[in-house]
Amino acid sequence: MKRTIAGMAFSLACLMNLSEAQTINHDKVEMENGKNTGMCVKLPMQPDGIVRLSKIEVHAEYLEEYVKYAIEVGEISLRTEPGVLTMYAVAEKDNACRITILETYASQKAYKSHIASAHFQKYKQETLHMVKALVLSDQTPLNPSNSITNIIK
Hints:
Blueprint: H1 2-16, E1 29-32, E2 35-40, E3 50-58, H2 63-80, E4 84-91, E5 98-105, H3 108-116, H4 118-127, E6 131-138
Antiparallel strand pairs: 1-2, 3-5, 3-6, 4-5
Helix pairs in contact: 2-4
Domain ABM: 50-143
Protein name: Antibiotic biosynthesis monooxygenase
GO molecular function, one term: monooxygenase activity
């Protein structure tokens, strides 16, 4: 019963993040080996999709707190937003204050929906003073037929 309710909650969250022009199977969340992954069904990458590297330098005194916010917004976005396809954050081995996030969005509309979401706005407002530098670098995939599957376990 709890899994059914959780599945319905994720489906509802996915529905709330879709515009009228976007359609997917609203009755399902992602399944793996017959088990609910807790991820909403993802939209396919569109011609106007975004592949971005967000390069962030965090003030050292805020690093631990920043990482908590980054993990939270990434997990919520991947679980509830059909147009957020990848959100994979890494820190440099020699300088953990330098963080790079690979982000992929199914479309421009999906990206706009993401940055307007309550969880992203919370992240942005709460971490603004923690960020020393930010560079958003849009990328062009060399092999468009290659895709990344990003799941939160």
